[in-house]
Amino acid sequence: MSEKPFVPQIEIFDTTLRDGAQGEGITFSVRDKMAVAQALDELGVAWIEAGNPGSNPKDLEFFKAAGQLGLTTSKLCACGSTRKKGATPSGDESVLSLLQAGTEAVVLFGKSWDLHATEVLRVSLAENLAMIRETVAFCKDAGRTVIYDAEHFFDGRRANPGYAMATLEAALEAGADRIVLCDTNGGSFPAEIQDGVRAAIALAAERASRTPGSPARIVGIHAHDDMGMAIANSLLSVDAGAAQVQGTLVGFGERCGNAALAAIVPSLELKRGLRCLPAGRLERISALSRRVAEIANVSIPEGMAYVGARAFAHKAGMHADGILKVRASFEHVDPARVGNDRRFLMSEVGGRSAIAERARKVDPSITKDSPVAAAVAARLKSLEAEGWQFEGADASFELLVRRELDGYAPLFSIERYRVVSEHPAPDADSCSNAWVKVLVDGATEMAAAEGDGPVNALDKALRRALERFYPELSRVRLSDYKVRVIDGQDATAAWVRVLIDSTDGTEAWTTVGVSTDIIDASRAALVDSIEYKLIRDMERNAAERR
């Protein structure tokens, strides 16, 4: 069945590939940029700001290759500034590069704060207006849709409101299709944001009334999170009449980041009844947010609204019991609507009902009164008394349940292993090596590997030995590794808890291990990580065959 036509009510404009790439620690290759663009197109955002072709060769290379993307929903934008001081748009290489990018739309940013015009660009206020007006007109004459980003608009409006509005009027006069108000420093309160949006909408409407037949101009918002208000400011801008929201899907960007579209879009669709994405796409937002984060080599904050691992997590027994009876008692939306999962955190305060509910994902026949639930609860409490903690390690908990079921048999076992670290290392690239012997269905395999540390070496050796039997493990990697001393009274002899986050590029999962030996605790978490991946793949393949 084909999807219903996309009738935009709120335009979603993603700048992960431009503003997001300015975040600390974020670097995209051309291939990364292609993959992010495809993920955003799959989600169905209206516009993808893909970079500044005049600023670096990588962005220029991306735009040359963009024709291979085959985008079906999203439109690419090239981004750049208004012409330089004393130049003409036709003689400014940066402006010309926007047209050479070949995108349907261009994003032009100009200065709305008089301080930036006179002290940063070192131009007169009149020259700054001319730069805006001439560059917008030049790009319009070239047949482009022009999205004008009014940089520092709210700072400018506080300092010199008349001039800030004059910069918008210059863009409108020259034919800008959209004017976007930027809280570039992220320092504005919601009331200021809403007031500025209403003023811009009134200006656009007044200008349209003076020009019969002119199209209505869309006003948008571009918020940064330096006061932690980017999401709120974006949502309140829509309440004030903004029809385009800019941000980055996962929220990363310069300094404290941009408005997180993964939180904004569900709020607009589910709480305001506004259409932001094509029908049926919202359910993909959690998975696609994880994909974009994986490409950027960052982790989605676990507490992130809607798409975070903790967004629908319940620990207290009363909460779990309430959810099982009436979903709305402790959840503001159904997690399935954003492609996320309800999680019951397994702990001694969780209660038998929560344990049974989580265990039913493994075996739907399990109830809170079944022997398996009782055995899992007893085992859980025994392990937690030793320092194990499963509330952040769902994969290990799932395996704990499976090990209590009849018919469970491990897919492999480690017969022996040895880890050695050398300091100083004879090879500057590695300081540890590991040797592992595994048993799989009666067959043994041995492998050795070097690593940057003992856990890295053990992980490599274990997967190398198992890849003979399970080649799909070549796609698995550790994405995070945490160690916590459970009780420091015994100093270096204390019990430690190891949490390992793993991913295969599509899914992510967490496992736990506990021991007085940090290597053995890591081994336990690694074994669970690999076994969980293999079981998931086997069950998925079996379901597809059915």
Structural descriptors:
546 residues; alpha/beta; TIM Barrel; Double Stranded RNA Binding Domain; 3 domains; eight-stranded parallel β-barrel; 16 strands; 39% helix; elongated
Please write out the topology.
Blueprint (H helix, E strand, L loop, with lengths): L10 E4 L15 H14 L3 E3 L7 H9 L9 E7 L11 H8 L4 E7 L2 H7 L4 H17 L3 E7 L1 H7 L1 H13 L4 E6 L6 H21 L7 E6 L6 H10 L4 E4 L13 H11 L13 H12 L16 E2 L2 H9 L17 E2 L7 H8 L11 H15 L8 H11 L8 E9 L10 E9 L2 E9 L2 H13 L10 E9 L10 E8 L4 E8 L2 H28 L1
Parallel strand pairs: 1-2, 1-8, 2-3, 3-4, 4-5, 5-6, 6-7, 7-8, 9-10
Antiparallel strand pairs: 11-12, 12-13, 14-15, 15-16
Short description:
The protein has 546 residues and is α/β, with parallel strands linked by helices. It has helices at residues 30-43, 57-65, 93-100, 114-120, 125-141, 153-159, 161-173, 190-210, 230-239, 261-271, 285-296, 317-325, 352-359, 371-385, 394-404, 454-466, 518-545, and strands spanning 11-14, 47-49, 75-81, 105-111, 145-151, 178-183, 218-223, 244-247, 313-314, 343-344, 413-421, 432-440, 443-451, 477-485, 496-503, 508-515. The chain folds into 3 domains: 11-296, TIM Barrel (Alpha-Beta Barrel); 313-404, no CATH class; 413-545, 2-Layer Sandwich (Double Stranded RNA Binding Domain), CATH 3.30.160.
Number of helices: 17
Cα distance spanning the termini? 22 Å
Number of extended strands: 16
Give the CATH level 1 class of the largest domain: Alpha Beta
Mean pLDDT: 88
What order do the strands of the largest sheet run in, or round the barrel if closed?
Answer: 1-2-3-4-5-6-7-8
Please state roughly what percent of the residues sit in beta strands, choosing from under 5%, 5-15%, 15-25%, 25-35%, 35-45% or over 45%.
Answer: 15-25%
